Amino acid sequence: MPPAPSPGAFDPRILALPLYEEHHRELAHRLTLWCDGHEDLLADAEPPMTAGPRILRALGDGGWLAFLDGGPDDHRALCLAREALAYAGDLADYTFSIQALAAGPLRRHGTGEQRRRYLPGLARGELCAAFAVSEEAAGSDVAAIGLDARETATGWVLDGGKAWIAHAGIADVYTVIARTGPGPGALGLSAFLVPATTPGLRVRPVPMIAPRALGHLVFEECALPGQALLGRRGGGFPIAMEVLDRFRMTVGAAALGFARRAADAALARALARPMRGGKLFDLPTVRAAFAGMEVKLDAAALLVARAAWETDHGDPRYPRHSAVAKFYATEAAQEIVDSALQVFGAAGLVRDSLMERLYRQIRSLRIYEGSSEVQQAVIAAAIDPYRTARGVSS
Ligand SMILES: Cc1cc2nc3c(=O)[nH]c(=O)nc-3n(C[C@H](O)[C@H](O)[C@H](O)COP(=O)(O)OP(=O)(O)OC[C@H]3O[C@@H](n4cnc5c(N)ncnc54)[C@H](O)[C@@H]3O)c2cc1C
């Protein structure tokens, strides 16, 4: 008989809903088993610059990145994978998600030659990719990007910088959004594939609250051949927005994984800890805290599943659903991790304990791939046409 997976990463009653198909349930089961079998590797015990490539290789060997080279778009599978990996460890989710995010534009817009050059290595976990959009003066406002791409007789020259780039320093190739025309704003942007070995490209590592391979990029007269252009000239903004719209719901899924891990650990603690002649879990206010966590976990799981289902079924409003899932799940996860830590008391604050790590790891999800405020703006912008379509009048 195959070993039973650990119960925590998924709620079997939500997985059983018709929002998922049988192959999704199988994926959730197999990936949970795989995570259990790789517990030491995924335990966030090693520095990210060395752990990242090792995890990537293991994910490739396990076949979890194979979809990057020719597999279908399956947002439900992507969300389930992030939920399981985030439950297992921060770097497992980080490595998987950045690889998939960075490969997205290449999969959708790459020429045959560009795809053949990179996708097989990315799918095996032998090559590592990064997606470089943000700059110090252009985070939420992508249209303000200033990294200059100048056309030359043989190709392009890039000058400027990128900020807060995940996988900086371990990536073999960067998908970079740069300015190829005077604008205005979003119209003057194009995407490029930049090998990490390009002369003039430097990485400035940035230590963050949760240790991850991340840094700023400096481009000094970086010469690229004409074939480095990804997609059409001037198409950089829609390329970036499309991949972010599709990925936001997966950030919600990762938040759910972190939150479930925290809630499960807190429940085990509350059921075992003696308190006033009984157990901590017997206290009404502690039970109320768990009830609150349960409601938020259910709501987040259903919103993520809905967004992924709608996207897989071609709903044109998927960016709105994706924003709703990211906004709710990441905000709720922050609250769940905080409640779970409270159940631990002082023990939850011990440096490098599971709760302390989760407390640090969950924070950035409300900022990257569009902050909570940006999600609110996306959701609000979709309200009017949505209501009118249903015939609601004032
Ligand atoms: C762990 C981590 C990994 C990251 N990885 C990558 C990566 O791989 N590639 C990449 O390109 N970038 C990456 N980023 C950068 C990330 O996408 C930006 O941090 C994010 O877009 C916010 O930009 P900013 O930090 O410049 O904040 P700002 O844009 O300066 O925003 C500051 C504050 O202003 C608010 N604000 C901004 N605009 C609005 C608005 N229109 N309405 C209301 N409020 C608003 C924001 O919500 C925020 O609270 C990463 C960031 C982190 C933390």
Which ions and ligands are bound to the chains? Answer: flavin-adenine dinucleotide
**How many individual domains?**
3
Q: Report the sheet with the most strands, covering strand number, pairing sense and barrel closure.
A: 4 strands, mixed
Mean pLDDT: 94
- Total helical segments: 12
**Amino- and carboxy-terminal Cα gap:** 61 Å
Q: So what's the overall shape?
A: globular
CATH H level, superfamily name of the largest domain: Butyryl-CoA Dehydrogenase, subunit A, domain 3
Briefly, what CATH class of the largest domain?
A: Mainly Alpha
Rg measurement, Å: 22 Å
The fraction of residues in strands falls at 5-15%
Count the strands?
Answer: 10
Second-tier CATH architecture of the largest domain: Up-down Bundle
Listing every helix as H and every strand as E from the N terminus to the C terminus, the arrangement reads HHHHHHEEEEEEEEHEEHHHHH
Helix content: 40-55%
Specify the structural class.
alpha+beta
**Stretches with pLDDT under 50, minimum 5 residues:** 1-5
Task: Write up what this structure looks like.
This protein has 12 helices and 10 strands. Helix 7 runs antiparallel to helix 10 and helix 9 packs antiparallel against helix 11. It is 51% helix and 14% strand. Strand 6 (201-205) and strand 7 form a beta hairpin. The longest helix is centred in the middle third of the chain and has 37 residues, at 236-272. By secondary structure, the chain is an alpha+beta fold. Bound molecules: flavin-adenine dinucleotide (FAD). Flavin-adenine dinucleotide binds at residues 131-134, 139-140, 164-166, 208, 214, 364, 367-369, 371, 373-374, 377.
